[in-house]
Amino acid sequence: MSDDPETPLTAVRLEKRHAPVVVEERVGFLPIETNAFDRCFISVVIWVAISLFWFRFIEPMGLSIWFSNAISAAIAVFIVKKG
């Protein structure tokens, strides 16, 4: 192959090499800009709040804390994936 810069393949390689990098921002439902650690932390805080609420108001009525854990886990997965 020749080193002629006018050949189509060389032109395509040069265009790819100098193309700007575009980073797409992830848009979620949380009203703040977050990364994965932030969303995990928010999920843990919500998990603790739901557990404390459950211990105080729901568990005395007879429902086990395991229901609270299942609800909190589902909310945590949703926040981490979609938040």
Molecular structure report:
The protein is an all-alpha fold and 83 residues long. It has a domain of 55 residues. Helix 2 runs antiparallel to helix 3. The protein is rod-shaped, with a radius of gyration of 25 Å. The mean pLDDT is 84.
Mean pLDDT: 84
Cα end-to-end separation: 51 Å
> Count of DSSP E strands?
0
Helix count equals 3
Please tell me what the overall shape is: rod-shaped
The major sheet is characterized as: none
Helix content: 55-70%
Point out poorly predicted stretches: none
Structural class category: mainly alpha
How much beta, percentage-wise? Answer: under 5%
- Name the quaternary structure: single chain
The ordered H/E elements are: HHH
The gyration radius over C-alpha positions equals 25 Å
Break the fold down into its secondary structure elements and pairings.
Layout: H1 8-17, H2 36-58, H3 65-82
Helix pairs in contact: 2-3
Compact overview of the structure:
Helices cover 61% and strands 0% of the residues.
Task: Give keywords.
single chain; 83 residues; mainly alpha; 3 helices; rod-shaped
